[in-house]
Amino acid sequence: ISHEIEEQADVADQGHLALPLHPDHRAPTFPADHQIRRLHRVGEGEVRSGGSRRPSILADAIEAIIAAVFLDAGFDAARTVIERLFEPLLAKIDSNAPGKDPKTALQEWLQGRRVALPTYTMTQVLGEAHAQEFEVACEVPKFSVRTVGRGSSRRAAEQRSAELALAQLDGVEK
């Protein structure tokens, strides 16, 4: 996959590319997912617990298929299978889209300017326990930036406030 990504993008930008991921943000979504899941056999316990639908189980099955092709037919055949599986995902790579979450991007932006990391403070928790909304402030004193983000989790609120801080810092010189 890295070879294909290298061919599509400038080598210097590879670290910033992100594959479109499955909703659980760990496993890529393949067009062949449903076919592999249909053919994949798992134990009774996995079926009862819903484990057969876990992305990690699908990833293990795909890895086993690729390994079997490699052992049976060699590197070139395995590479062909990999290219076919990942081709739809590779086509969706946007080299202009950020591959990092806002908190990471903000931290790297600040570190690149030798500025202290931002502070995140929970300012408010709204709603009932089963449907809470969190409000988090992000502060970067060096640039007099203070933003407030909301989200369904503390992490989501932090990400939103970091995103707003990055927007405010856009155009600030080193």
Task: Write up what this structure looks like.
It is a single chain. This protein is an alpha+beta fold and about 170 residues long. Helices cover about 45% and strands about 15% of the residues. It is built from 7 helices and 3 strands; from the N terminus they run H-H-H-H-H-H-E-E-E-H. It has helices at about 1-10, 35-40, 45-50, 55-75, 75-90, 100-110, 155-170; strands at about 120-125, 135-140, 145-150. It has a 3-stranded antiparallel β-sheet with strand order 1-2-3, covered by helices on one side. The two termini are about 35 Å apart. Mean pLDDT is about 80; it is low at about 10-15 and about 20-25.
Blueprint (SSEs and pairs):
Layout: H1 2-8, H2 33-39, H3 44-49, H4 55-73, H5 75-91, H6 102-111, E1 119-126, E2 133-140, E3 145-151, H7 154-169
Antiparallel strand pairs: 1-2, 2-3
Summarize the structure.
The chain is an alpha+beta fold and about 170 residues long. The protein has seven helices and three strands, in the order H-H-H-H-H-H-E-E-E-H. The protein has a three-stranded antiparallel β-sheet, with helices on one face.
